[in-house]
Design a protein that fits this description.
CATH class of the largest domain in chain A: Alpha Beta
Order of helices and strands of chain B: HHHHHHHHHHHH
CATH superfamily of one domain in chain B: MetI-like
Number of strands of chain A: 12
CATH topology of one domain in chain B: MetI-like fold
Helix content of chain B: over 70%
CATH architecture of the largest domain in chain A: 3-Layer(aba) Sandwich
CATH topology of the largest domain in chain A: D-Maltodextrin-Binding Protein, domain 2
Number of helices of chain A: 16
Radius of gyration of chain B: 22 Å
Structural class of chain A: alpha/beta
Oligomer: heterodimer
Largest sheet of chain B: none
CATH class of one domain in chain B: Mainly Alpha
Largest sheet of chain A: 7 strands, mixed
Distance between the termini of chain A: 47 Å
Number of domains of chain A: 2
CATH architecture of one domain in chain B: Orthogonal Bundle
Distance between the termini of chain B: 24 Å
Chain lengths: 409, 274
C-alpha cells in the first residue's frame, strides 16, 4: 500500500507543473487595473465554473454560447462543472480553506444565492471588492435593493447578479378550471380539493419559499416582517402560519402524511397528474418543461394577486481561485447585453435579465423588445407588478426550523 | 460433483432465476422507454410522442457523456486492479494467519462500509489536499480504494480461509520458483475470489459520486456525476439515456464473468469463513 501511495504521490507531484499562463490567485493585485490588462492576463487560461447541471438547456447555453465567446474572443477555456446541489461547491471551497489552500483552489466561479452566499460571505470564502473593475458593471443597477441584497444579506461587492426570478404557480388548463389566485384562495381551494395540492418540505428551496408566502399572508403583509429578525414578531406570526398549514395538512396529497422532498418531486407529481398545482421560483421552467415533454402543452403559469416573492441569483468567485482574471472576464461576458439577451430568449432559457435593459445599446434594447415569451410562462412584467421582497436569511432559517418542528414533525 | 439434481430443486432454481431476472430487468424497462419519449403522462401506457432528443444530447460532445464513459471505465479498472493487488496479500494474511489485533484490523477494513461516506468525505478531502492528490485522476482512483477494498479483502480472506498452502509447498519441492508457484498453483486456486471481489470492486468504484466530486474537484467528471445531475432534476428522458449507457459496462462484465460466478468453480478454493 505504502509503495503504491508513494508511487502515485510521485507521479502526481511530477504532473503538478506550474501553469503556462499567469496565476491570478492574488485578487488584490487585479483591482483597479485597466480592463485590457486583465483580459490580456486571462488569455490562454481556463475557468472552472460550478453550477447546477440538471437542465440540458442551461448546460447548452453555458457550454456552447458562453464557452464559445470565451474561447473565440478571449482564448479562455470554460470548464462547466455540473452540480446536483450548489452546497457541494461551497463545501469544496470550505474544506480547501480549512486545509490551508489559499491560492490553488479548484473552484473559480459558482452560480449562487441565498443560504450558500451567506455561508461564503460569512466564512470569508468570497473574493470581494472587484465589481467596479468589470466594464459591464455599469449595466447593473446597484441602487435596486433587490440586487444589492441577496436574500437580505448585503452583497457588498462580493458577487455580481446573473438573472432574476420570481415565484409563480402553474396549473393544467385541461384538468383544473379555476386555480386559486391568492394565498387566501389557495387555503380554501385546498380544502375543497382534497389530495390535489402539496409542497416540498422545507428546507427545500422552493418549499421554503412557498411557506414564506403563507407566512406573509399570516402576517397581513410582508411590511411587518422586513428588517432584522424579531423573536416576538416571529412568535406571533408563526403561531398563525403553523395553524394555517396544520389545518391544511389533512387535505394535502396523501393526507399530508408525507411531503415531497424536492421541487423536482413535486414536478413529477404534477406531470403525473397526481396533484393539480405546481410552483417554482423560476417561472420560465414551465415553458422549457412543455418544450422538452415533461409537462403537457395545456399547462399554464400564473402569478398571485397578492404578489409572489422575487429574488436575484448571482455568480461568485471564491477567495482561493487561481484563475481570477479569467473568472472576471467570464462575469463580464455574462453581464453583457448580448449574453443576457440570449439567456432571455424563451427557446434558450427564458430567464429574466439582471441588468437594466434601458442602459444597454440600442440594438440590444430592440432585441429585448422583440422577445416573445413562451405563451405558457407567466409574464415577467405582470409578475413584477406584484413582486414581494425576500426576508433576511435569519428569518428564513427560523421559518424553516419552525416548519420542521411544528408542521413537518 | 453432485449427480443429477432432483426435479423439485431444478424447478426452484429456474423459478428463482426467473424472479431474479424480473427484478433486475423490469425496473429498467420504463427507463429505456423514457429515453425515447417526449413526454409520458398518466394514464398513457406508452408515451404518445417519441423522440431521439435525449439520446442526441447524451451522445453529443456537449453533454460529455462519452468522454466520461471512457474515463469512468479507466478509473474503475485501475481501482479494481489496485484493489486486487492489495486484496490478495491482505486477504491471505487475514484468512490464513492468526495474529494479535486481527479483530481490530478486520474492523478497520470493514469501517468504510459501516461509516457513511458523507461523514468522512470532508476529512478525506483535507488529507488529499495536503498530499497534493486532489483534482487528479490518480487521486480519484486512490480514494475509490477506500470503499472498494473492504469487499475485495473480505472475499479474498474467505478464499484463503479454505486454501491449503501445502499445495504451494509441493510445487516448491518439485522445483517451481516462487513466481511459478504463484502463477500455476496459487492463482488458479484463488481465481474465483479475484473475479468475485474484482466485480464488487469495479461496481463500487463505478457508482461513486461524492468522493469523485470532492477529490476530483470538478476536473474528473465520471458518469455518475453527469447522471445524478439529471436524475435529481426530473429529466427522465435524459436520465434514461445516460442510465442505459451507465449500466452497460456492468452488464458486459457480468456476462463475461458469469460462468465463474455459479459457485461451482469455487470447488478448488471454496468460499469459506475467515
Amino acid at each position: 500500500m505504502k509503495k503504491i501511495l508513494g508511487a502515485a504521490l510521485l507521479a502526481t507531484s511530477v504532473a503538478f507543473t506550474p501553469n503556462a499562463f499567469a496565476d491570478t490567485a492574488d485578487g488584490k493585485s487585479l483591482l483597479g487595473q485597466p480592463w485590457e490588462k486583465i483580459v490580456e492576463t486571462a488569455k490562454g487560461g481556463q475557468v472552472n465554473w460550478f453550477l447546477w447541471g440538471g437542465s440540458d438547456d442551461i448546460n447548452k447555453y453555458v457550454t456552447e454560447y458562453v464557452g464559445g465567446i470565451l474561447k473565440n474572443d478571449y482564448g479562455i477555456t470554460l470548464n462547466r462543472v455540473g452540480l446536483t446541489d450548489t452546497a457541494e461547491a461551497v463545501n469544496i471551497v470550505l474544506s480547501e480553506k480549512e486545509a490551508g489552500v489559499t491560492d490553488k483552489g479548484s473552484v473559480d466561479m459558482i452560480w449562487i444565492n441565498g443560504e450558500n452566499f451567506r455561508t461564503m460571505k460569512q466564512g470569508g470564502l468570497a473574493y470581494c471588492g472587484y465589481t467596479d473593475t468589470l466594464p459591464n458593471n455599469k449595466l447593473v443597477n446597484w441602487e435596486n435593493p433587490a440586487i444589492a441584497n441577496d436574500f437580505g444579506v448585503p452583497v457588498d461587492d462580493c458577487e455580481v447578479p446573473w438573472s432574476k426570478a420570481q415565484f409563480a404557480f402553474a396549473y393544467d388548463t385541461a384538468r383544473t378550471e379555476k386555480p386559486p389566485k391568492s394565498i387566501g384562495e389557495l387555503i380554501e381551494w385546498v380544502k375543497a380539493n382534497p389530495g390535489q395540492f402539496t409542497y416540498p418540505a422545507p428546507p427545500d428551496f422552493n418549499g421554503s419559499v412557498f411557506v414564506r408566502h403563507v407566512f406573509y399572508h399570516a402576517a397581513g403583509g410582508v411590511e411587518n416582517l422586513l428588517g432584522d429578525f424579531d423573536q416576538a414578531k416571529f412568535d406571533e406570526v408563526s403561531a398563525k402560519a403553523w395553524k394555517i398549514l396544520n389545518d391544511m395538512e389533512p387535505y394535502l396529497w396523501r393526507e399530508g402524511k408525507t411531503y415531497p422532498t424536492s421541487v423536482n418531486a413535486l414536478e413529477q407529481l404534477f406531470a403525473n397528474s397526481e396533484v393539480a398545482l405546481y410552483f417554482n421560483y423560476e417561472p420560465a421552467g414551465v415553458g422549457l418543461n412543455i418544450e422538452n415533454g415533461t409537462f403537457p402543452a395545456t399547462v399554464k403559469g400564473y402569478g398571485l394577486s397578492d404578489g409572489t416573492i422575487g429574488n436575484t441569483n448571482y455568480t461568485i468567485i471564491p477567495f482561493n481561485s487561481p484563475n481570477k482574471a479569467a473568472a472576471l472576464v467570464l462575469q463580464n461576458v455574462l453581464l453583457s447585453g448580448a449574453a443576457q439577451y440570449e439567456k432571455a430568449k424563451p427557446d434558450v432559457w427564458g430567464t429574466q435579465p439582471a441588468i437594466e435593459i434601458s442602459r444597454t445599446a440600442d440594438d440590444i434594447k430592440a432585441k429585448f423588445a422583440s422577445i416573445k415569451k413562451h405563451p405558457a410562462v407567466a409574464s415577467a412584467e405582470e409578475l413584477a407588478k406584484n413582486a414581494l421582497p425576500e426576508l433576511q436569511a435569519s428569518w428564513i432559517s427560523a421559518i424553516e426550523k419552525g416548519w420542521v418542528a411544528n408542521v413537518g414533525q | 460433483m453432485v449427480g443429477k439434481e432432483s426435479f423439485s430443486i431444478r424447478s426452484i432454481r429456474v423459478l428463482s432465476g426467473a424472479v431474479l431476472i424480473t427484478w433486475l430487468i423490469l425496473p429498467l424497462v420504463p427507463l429505456a422507454i423514457w429515453s425515447f419519449a417526449k413526454g409520458w403522462f398518466f394514464p398513457d401506457l406508452l408515451p404518445k410522442r417519441w423522440s431521439l432528443q435525449a439520446w442526441e444530447y447524451a451522445l453529443s460532445d456537449l453533454s460529455g457523456v462519452m468522454d466520461s464513459l471512457w474515463l469512468t471505465v479507466w478509473i474503475s479498472i485501475a481501482a479494481t486492479a489496485l484493489s486486487i493487488l492489495v486484496g490478495i496479500p491482505a486477504g491471505r494474511a487475514l484468512g490464513m494467519y492468526k495474529f494479535r489485533g486481527k479483530e481490530l484490523v478486520e474492523l478497520l477494513i470493514l469501517a468504510p462500509t459501516i461509516v457513511p461516506g458523507i461523514a468522512v468525505v470532508l476529512g478525506i478531502h483535507s488529507v488529499f489536499i495536503s498530499m497534493g492528490l486532489n483534482n487528479t485522476i490518480n487521486g480519484v482512483i486512490l480514494v475509490h480504494l477506500i470503499p472498494t477494498l473492504p469487499y475485495m479483502i473480505l472475499v479474498m480472506a474467505g478464499i484463503f480461509a479454505n486454501y491449503d498452502p501445502s499445495f504451494e509447498a509441493q510445487a516448491r519441492s518439485l522445483g517451481a520458483s516462487s513466481a511459478q508457484t504463484f502463477w500455476y498453483v496459487t492463482l488458479p486456486a484463488i481465481m474465483p475470489g479475484i473475479i468475485v471481489g474484482g466485480l464488487f470492486a469495479f461496481l463500487v468504484s463505478w457508482s461513486q459520486y461524492i468522493l469523485t466530486l470532492l477529490i476530483g474537484g470538478g476536473r474528473v467528471v465520471t458518469l455518475p456525476l453527469l447522471l445524478f445531475n439529471f436524475a435529481t432534476s426530473g429529466r427522465n428522458d435524459i436520465t434514461g439515456a445516460i442510465g442505459m449507457i451507465y449500466i452497460l459496462p456492468g452488464v458486459i462484465i457480468l456476462l463475461l464473468t458469469a460462468k465463474h460466478l455459479s459457485g461451482r468453480n469455487g470447488a478448488v478454493g471454496g468460499f469459506g469463513r475467515i
